[in-house]
Amino acid sequence: MNWSGQRVLITGASSGIGAAIAEAAAKRGAELILVARSADKLEAVAEGIRRHGGTATTHLCDVSDAEQVALLANEIQTPDVLINNAGAGRWKPLVETSPEEAAAMMEAPYLAALYMTRAFLPAMFQRHSGLCLFVNSAASQLAWPGAAAYTAARWAVRGLFEAVRAETTGTGVHAAMATFAKVSSDYWKNNPGSEERVPVAQTSVPILSPQQVAEAILDGVAAGREEIVAPWQLRLKFFANRLFPSIVRREMLRVN
Ligand SMILES: NC(=O)c1ccc[n+]([C@@H]2O[C@H](COP(=O)([O-])OP(=O)(O)OC[C@H]3O[C@@H](n4cnc5c(N)ncnc54)[C@H](OP(=O)(O)O)[C@@H]3O)[C@@H](O)[C@H]2O)c1
């Protein structure tokens, strides 16, 4: 897929990975539809894109709220590419996670991605084209102590991606998932207590910047890949986990 001229909607575009994807996609000629809740931060990302000659509109929406998503879907034309990236959640052991925190972690990213995809899929089906991409974490394939609700929510996103891929097969619409280990975004500042619980195994996987993640996504989609995993050391971990699950599971138990 060539990014030039594509209308790309990104949730969670006010910060980190979402903002970096927006800036990189704009450089490749895409028209951006930026969605998040923080007006100032979202406008700053859009302004930066416009200053460099790109096109970006901003839309305030809590994507974990089904009614707000329905209003957004009425307000804008269905994009060519939907990037479900919005997400948050503090890493905590299960017994320290309140029911409210656990529910909030399922609301974004998982339910948010479900509401957004559900809202735009019908028009994509009618057009026989479109791409729904899910940004995900290594926690969607591996588990370690101290991040229970976060991990469960990322497995849910992976399940949603698989379901959307199955339901779109043969329709002209496509699904993709991009999975990363640690990224040096504001996630760690925005979700206090999480960084302390990064597994020791992360030391053998280089930390990526949001810009590196954005390029991996754009290149992966351009190459037609449905499953994008970066860096390559993380692919190796997933492969090892398929061959020797008990060894990798033991390795993941060691947390900082
Ligand atoms: N950082 C990492 O190491 C890493 C690695 C792999 C995967 N990921 C995943 O990538 C996603 C993005 O993370 P990031 O590192 O870019 O974190 P971040 O810098 O904290 O950005 C999170 C973004 O999500 C938006 N957001 C959160 N809840 C929202 C809601 N209910 N409605 C609308 N927007 C919402 C935030 O915007 P507003 O607050 O303005 O709404 C913000 O733009 C997360 O799901 C994260 O789990 C992160």
TrEMBL record:
Q: Does the keyword Oxidoreductase apply?
A: yes
Indicate the segments forming the Ketoreductase domain, all copies. 6-179
> What Gene Ontology terms describe where this protein resides (cellular component)?
membrane
The record's keywords, sorted A to Z, are:
Oxidoreductase
PANTHER family associated with the record:
DEHYDROGENASE/REDUCTASE SDR FAMILY MEMBER 7B (PTHR44196), DEHYDROGENASE_REDUCTASE SDR FAMILY MEMBER 7B (PTHR44196:SF1)
The family note in this entry says:
Belongs to the short-chain dehydrogenases/reductases (SDR) family.
Q: What is this protein identified as?
A: SDR family NAD(P)-dependent oxidoreductase
Q: Which organism is it from?
A: Luteolibacter luteus
